[in-house]
């Protein structure tokens, strides 16, 4: 019994890493299909990024994480639903495969695919339920927010483009990010405007 519990834990940890990779890969694939360009991709300590000359580099980071950042190529007609939900869609697909293989197999193979399904379900719920985790919204929250407010969609594009410039250490025209806040705008809808202002403030401090 103890061996099964230990093996389940090992299989779950491996499955969680696989689901993390697939989640970020989903963002990447759907981002490419909907007009985004690649900035960086991190899974665990592996950090793959593109510099301002569009050359790829691979670093080993001290921090362990998972993130795929892509930037819209234009400011017009930006598709945000598939890019934001791409990771969840990829997790769903892999989890369906996992539960199917678990049903069709036995022994330790069955246990592995069952853990793959469990890790996927947790990843889907963790990213799909619309909520804010400290400062960072989940993918589900992002989609709900961007569907709700047109101005938030504009702020979202500006935020990603500014993030790219900061990442590449490019010169930034701070005045171009100034805009009037309308009386009907809510704190919720101003999420990416405030995030942009925070980033500009940090640049000023440095």
Features:
206 residues; alpha+beta; 6 helices; elongated
Protein model, in words:
- By secondary structure, the chain is α+β, with helices and mostly antiparallel strands.
- The chain is 59% helix and 17% strand.
- The protein contains six helices and four strands; from the N terminus they run αββααββααα.
- It has helices at residues 2-33, 81-104, 107-128, 139-148, 150-167, 191-205; strands at residues 36-50, 56-72, 132-133, 136-137.
- The strands form two sheets. A two-stranded antiparallel sheet has the order 1-2.
- The chain starts with a helix and ends with a helix.
- The mean pLDDT is 91.
Structure class: alpha+beta
User: Cα distance, first to last residue?
Assistant: 56 Å
Low-confidence runs (pLDDT<50, min 5 residues)?
Answer: none
Mean pLDDT: 91
**How many helices?**
6
Number of strands: 4
Radius of gyration: 19 Å
Order of helices and strands: HEEHHEEHHH
Biggest sheet, in brief?
Answer: 2 strands, antiparallel
Shape: elongated
Strand order of the largest sheet: 1-2
Work out the strand percent.
15-25%
Helical content, roughly?
Answer: 55-70%
């Amino acid at each position: 019994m103890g061996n099964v519990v230990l093996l389940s834990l090992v299989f779950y940890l491996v499955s969680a890493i696989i689901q993390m990779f697939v989640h970020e890969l989903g963002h990447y694939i759907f981002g490419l299909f909907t007009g985004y360009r690649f900035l960086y991709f991190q899974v665990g300590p592996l950090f793959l990024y593109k510099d301002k000359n569009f050359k790829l580099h691979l670093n080993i980071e001290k921090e362990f994480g998972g993130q795929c950042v892509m930037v819209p190529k234009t400011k017009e007609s930006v598709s945000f639903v598939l890019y934001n939900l791409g990771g969840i869609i990829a997790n769903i697909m892999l989890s369906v495969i996992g539960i199917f293989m678990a049903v069709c197999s036995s022994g330790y193979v069955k246990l592995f695919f069952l853990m793959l399904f469990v890790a996927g379900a947790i990843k889907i719920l963790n990213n799909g339920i619309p909520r804010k985790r400290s400062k960072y919204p989940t993918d589900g929250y992002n989609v709900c927010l961007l569907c709700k407010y047109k101005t938030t969609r504009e702020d979202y594009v500006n935020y990603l483009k500014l993030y790219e410039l900061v990442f590449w250490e490019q010169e930034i025209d701070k005045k171009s990010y100034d805009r009037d806040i309308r009386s009907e705008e809510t704190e919720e809808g101003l999420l990416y405007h405030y995030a942009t202002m925070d980033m500009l403030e940090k640049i000023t401090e440095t």
